[in-house]
Amino acid sequence: MEIKYENYIWDLGGTLIDSYAVSVNVFKKILAEFGILTAEDMIYRRMKKSSTEEAAKFFGVGDIHHFMTRYRAMEKPMQEKPVLFPGAKETLEAICNQGGQNFVISHRDHSVNQLLENAGIKSLFTEIVTSDNQLPRKPNPSSINYLIDKYHLEKSKTILIGDRALDIEAGENAEISTALFKSDIIIAQVKPTYTITELKELLTI
């Protein structure tokens, strides 16, 4: 069966890479450094709904800059051996084999290139957008529009895949289709084009 879309724009953590176990653990430890004790389930739910910075603000962190500096420094080495969600590599390969293109948008810096290399999927992307591109973060659609403009992508043949409301909002703001992946938290404020529980479902929608 042929794929419906030509261009697949991916979120990274929580979509291709199962990063939450590490992220939540690190977040909890640094909150404790700030004297804030919170259950991991609460942290996970908040991180699924918003950015890490917004989550830190929600839990009452005063010095966000210091918090994020500590968070990035502690999380980075723990993510050096990324764990892909089942079917991630096979789905990316199938898209490429059928003439499609994969792109990824990450809030991380250029170190994401090594992370994707370690995961064995870096070569499957046409371009990897990182914080080094200095584009506004999702849900602002600038990073998506950058790819659309640079590669002359047809919007009707382009889809964004992510696991959080801000991913879906970014896709909607860019006027492209969206797929919400593996969301075990009800996200009432967004209405994705598709909701999927396995990445391979993208090959048959």
Give a written overview of the molecule.
The protein is an alpha/beta fold and 205 residues long. It folds into two domains: 7-18 and 82-203, HAD superfamily/HAD-like (Rossmann fold, 3-Layer(aba) Sandwich); 20-78, DNA polymerase, domain 1 (Orthogonal Bundle). The protein has helices at 20-33, 40-49, 52-58, 64-78, 88-97, 112-119, 142-151, 165-173; strands spanning 7-11, 101-105, 127-129, 158-162, 177-181, 194-196. The chain has a six-stranded parallel β-sheet, sandwiched between helices. Helix 8 links the parallel strand 4 (158-162) and strand 5 (177-181). Helix 1 crosses helix 2 (40-49), helix 1 (20-33) packs across helix 4 and helix 2 (40-49) crosses helix 3. The termini are close together.
